[in-house]
Design goal:
Blueprint: H1 13-20, E1 27-29, E2 54-61, E3 64-71, H2 82-100, E4 106-111, H3 122-138, E5 145-148, H4 157-163, E6 167-170, H5 181-188, H6 198-205, H7 207-212, E7 218-219, H8 224-236, H9 248-256, H10 266-277, H11 300-308, E8 315-316, E9 321-328, E10 331-338, H12 356-372, E11 381-387, H13 394-398, H14 401-417, E12 422-431, H15 432-437, E13 444-448, E14 454-456, H16 460-467, H17 471-480, H18 488-492, E15 499-501, H19 511-531, H20 538-541, H21 543-549, H22 551-563
Parallel strand pairs: 3-4, 4-5, 5-6, 6-7, 10-11, 11-12, 12-13, 12-14, 13-15
Antiparallel strand pairs: 1-2, 2-3, 8-9, 9-10
Helix pairs in contact: 2-3, 2-22, 3-4, 3-14, 4-14, 5-16, 9-12, 12-14
Length: 566
């Protein structure tokens, strides 16, 4: 930096928001003096912060009305909880309403976040799904611009959110990936990723690497003026942007050229990306390393798709993502399920995880439906969920697993906004980024009441390590804060479920069990069509949500709307 330059990274979250806006135009909505704090942290003997680590600022950018959302990485690692998540989602939803009324507002997001705040876990995941939904809807009206500068960077579920943006600006000091190095080391071992190797980290997920491989659109110097200029320039572009998560065919083609049995170096990926950018995209993708012998292992995801498609054979392009169009009642629906493939070419995605190939394949199968139904009644899409997590690995981070998960989430959200009833059926695990990718963007969520059905942001072992607690301490905390628990009944208490179904044999459903679920899915589809609502608001306004589960979310949104004058 030059002598007169000012570091953007060294500013706090509020100062960064002020720096992005035209001088003298900054004003804050739902600021510290409004006193809305997380109600869940004091129960765990954690001191809350009066803005919950998120600054919502109004003002002007190059003379035009704007909203800047800035995360304070210094509070709880920039983690997203119920209040902070509601502030972000609420601001984006209000910006969307502005555009629907013909009142433009420029949205800018300043990332500095590790993802979900594990002390609030499922509230964080719920919020992130709602933030992503708002981004997908809003970018149809205006560029949605993100800045990832440091110190924390952008990780976890918020990296999936960032992948949905129209433009991303990074500094070379920033980091951008789904799974933090420490979590990969915890889940996959130091041989997979050494969290102490700083050179490896920046070569894999740093700003320069992300820019050179297209996962960031601009690389800016760590300087207030340079970043302000980069943000302004994105709004001056005239052409309509196709987000990277919509470019399904390109990224599937790119991944098909990777041999995961050989460790791909960061500079090799740069060369591969640049060469592939100049190639025609084939109509079909072939995975020569994805062949598999013999029978595949059973899983709840496999059991339930086979049961629901009435004895037909499920289709697949890759063996870990099954899909099928089949009758539900009198109409055709598309079922999609992620299943284990012990022969998966990506080693870290062999136990039913959502990995690189899986995320992009889900996106393809959903977008096929949108395209095919463009001039006819939009058919329902049923996501059958039994996913233990996203895949943790070096190749996954280098090759952009956050974009693969984002592509799946983007496709489901796009289908929902296009009028397709999207219904999730949780039959097993629904964990972390895998659930954000496959299932969390649905109009309605149905779950089996079974001890093998879990919803959470991270495995217990990793959550304990990140929060510096023992598993026993985490379990004790979950008794006070239901959003931290893994069991489906605790999740149901948050108000996000359409129905929790008892008395079903989850592992080996009977014919009667299958008929019961088909009837409930039919009812969920009819409910969506009757309500005529294709956003995610039903989770906020269900009886359980209004009564207790999302009280803080509703208070935040109500007060934010009262103050909104952008």
């Amino acid at each position: 930096m030059g002598v007169n330059n000012q570091s953007f990274i060294e500013l706090n979250g509020r100062e960064r928001a002020q720096a992005i806006l035209d001088q003298g135009t900054f004003f804050e909505l739902l600021g510290p003096f409004d006193g809305i704090e997380s109600p869940h942290l004091p129960k765990q003997n954690i001191v809350p912060q009066s803005d919950d680590g998120v600054i919502i600022a109004g003002g002007l950018i190059a003379g035009e009305p704007a909203v800047v959302i800035s995360i304070e990485g210094g509070f709880q690692g920039g983690g997203i909880g119920e209040v902070s998540g509601a502030k972000i989602a609420g601001a984006l939803e209000l910006a969307l309403n502005n555009h629907k009324k013909g009142i433009p507002v420029r949205p800018v997001f300043l990332f500095d976040t590790g993802g979900v705040r594990l002390q609030e876990a499922n509230y964080g995941l719920l919020s992130i799904s709602e933030i992503g939904s708002a981004v997908v809807a809003l970018r149809e009206h205006t560029p949605v611009v993100g800045v990832i500068s440091g110190n924390v960077g952008c990780f976890g579920g918020m990296s999936i959110t960032a992948s949905l943006f129209s433009y991303l600006i990074m500094t070379k000091e920033a980091r951008f990936g789904l799974n933090g190095p420490e979590v990969i080391e915890q889940e996959a071992g130091v041989e997979e990723f050494d969290a102490r190797d700083r050179s490896l980290i920046w070569k894999t997920i740093g700003g320069i690497q992300r820019y050179e491989t297209g996962f960031a659109d601009a690389l800016a110097q760590d300087d207030v003026t340079a970043i302000q200029r980069a943000v302004q320039e994105t709004f001056q572009k005239k052409e309509k942007v196709t987000s990277k998560t919509e470019q399904v065919d390109f990224y599937r083609h790119l991944l098909s050229k990777v041999d995961p049995s050989e460790k791909l170096a960061s500079d090799q990926f740069q060369e591969l990306y640049k060469a592939t950018k100049n190639e025609p995209i084939p109509s079909t993708v072939s995975y020569s390393l994805n062949e598999f012998p013999g029978n595949m292992p059973n899983s709840r995801g496999r059991v339930w798709i086979n049961a629901l498609i009435n004895g037909e054979e499920a289709d697949f392009e890759i063996p870990s993502v099954l899909y099928k169009d089949a009758l539900l009642g009198r109409e055709k629906v598309r079922y999609i399920s992620v299943v284990p493939n012990p022969y998966n070419r990506f080693l870290r995605a062999r136990k039913g995880e959502v990995g690189l190939d899986e995320g992009w394949a889900i996106a393809k199968h959903v977008r096929e439906v949108i395209k095919e139904d463009r001039n006819q009644s939009p058919r329902p899409i049923i996501a059958i969920v039994d996913v233990p997590s996203q895949a943790y690995g070096y190749h996954e981070e280098l090759l952009g697993i956050h974009y693969a998960c984002g592509a799946a989430a983007d496709a489901y959200a796009a289908a929902r906004l296009a009028g397709h009833p999207v219904i999730t059926l949780i039959v097993g695990k629904a964990i972390s980024g895998a659930f954000l990718a496959h299932g969390y963007q649905s109009n309605r969520i149905v779950a089996l009441k079974d001890e093998g059905v879990n919803v959470h942001a991270m495995s217990k072992q990793s959550a304990a390590r990140i929060t510096k607690r023992s598993i026993k301490e985490l379990e004790e905390a979950s008794k006070k804060v239901p959003s931290m628990a893994y069991d489906i009944e605790s999740f149901a208490s948050l108000g996000a479920l359409y129905e929790l179904v008892s008395g079903i044999q989850a592992e080996q459903p009977t014919d009667r069990d299958v008929q019961t679920i088909q009837d409930i899915l039919t009812g969920a589809v009819e409910n969506v069509r009757r309500e005529g609502e294709y956003d995610l608001s039903s989770r906020l306004y269900s009886e359980q949500a209004r009564k207790e589960g999302r009280k803080a979310s509703l208070v935040v949104r109500g007060e934010l709307e009262r103050q909104w004058n952008i």
